[in-house]
Amino acid sequence: MQVDFQHFLSHGGYKDEENDPLSGHLFNLDDVKWRNLRVKLTPTFTSGKMKMMFHTLADCSVGLKDLIDESSTGVDIKDVLSRFGTDVISSVAFGLECNSVKNPDVLFSYFGRRALEIDIWDNIKIFMQVMLPHRLLKAMKHKFTKTDVEKFFMKVIRETVEYREKNNIYRKDFMHLLLQLKNRGTVTDDTSITDESGKPKEIALNMNELAAQAFVFFMAGYETSSSTLSFALYELATNPDIQEKLRDEINSVLANHEGQMTYDAMMEMTYMEKVIHGKDTLF
C-alpha cells in the first residue's frame, strides 16, 4: 500500500460541493484534490499543534469533573461523555463554548446528534450513493447532509470566521489553523491569520472547503471519542487491579507536574496508553 499508494487515491465517496458543501471534506475527496488537501491539513495534527490545543481540552474537562462530583446517584456515562465530546470539539474546532455537559439541550449538542441520526430515508440515500452513478446523483441534486444540519453548521462556521477575521482573534484551536489555510494557504507557527500582504501565498481553502473540514472534524470525533472512553471505563470498572495501577500512575505523574494535567504529563502516562490500546483489541 505504501509503495503503490498513488493507485489508491480515489475513495469513491459521493460528494457534491455545490449542492452539499459539507460533503466536500477530506474523506470524500479523490486524486490530486485529496492529496493537496491532505498535505495542507497534515501540519494541523502534529504533536506541536496538539500540544497547543491541549489547554482548551483541559478546560472542558473541568465541567465534566464538576458534574460527576455533584452527582449523588451516578450518571449515564455514555450520554455525559457524548456531551463532553461535544464541548471539546465545539471548542477546539469551532472556538465555541457551548457547555453541553451541564446543559444538554444547547443547539450545538442537538444538531450534533441530528447529524448522526440515520432514519429510513437516510438509508435509502446511502443505497442510492452506492448503486447509482455519481453524475446522475449530481444531476438529481442529491445531497446526504440534512438541510437543517447544513444550515446550522454553515451559519456557525461563517459567523465564527467573519468575527475572527474582523477582530483579528487568535485562539489556540483547529479553527485558527483552518483560517490560516483559508487566508495564507499554509499553516505556520505564528499567530497571524494572513501574511504581511494579506494575500494567500499558496492555493487556499474557500469558505465551503473550510466548513467541510471543520464539520468532518466534529463528525469523526463525536461518537468515536465517547465510545472509546465508555468502553475503557467499563473495562476499568470490571478490572479493579488495572484501575488501581492506572490511578497510581496518574497520581505519580501529576506529582511531578505540580498536580496539573498538561500535554507533557499526559505523554508520560504510558500505562494509560496501554489501557486504551488494550480496550481497542477487545471491541
Automatic annotation (TrEMBL):
It comes from the Eukaryota. Its cofactor is heme. It is a peripheral membrane protein. GO terms for cellular component: endoplasmic reticulum membrane. The keyword Repeat does not apply. InterPro entries: Cyt_P450, Cyt_P450_E_grp-II, Cyt_P450_sf, Insect_CytP450_Detox. Pfam families: p450. Transmembrane segments: none annotated. Keywords: Endoplasmic reticulum, Heme, Iron, Membrane, Metal-binding, Microsome, Monooxygenase, Oxidoreductase. One of its GO terms (molecular function) is iron ion binding. It is found in: Endoplasmic reticulum membrane; Microsome membrane. The keyword Phosphoprotein does not apply. Belongs to the cytochrome P450 family. PANTHER family: CYTOCHROME P450, CYTOCHROME P450 6A16, ISOFORM B-RELATED. This is Cytochrome P450 monooxygenase. It comes from Tenebrio molitor.
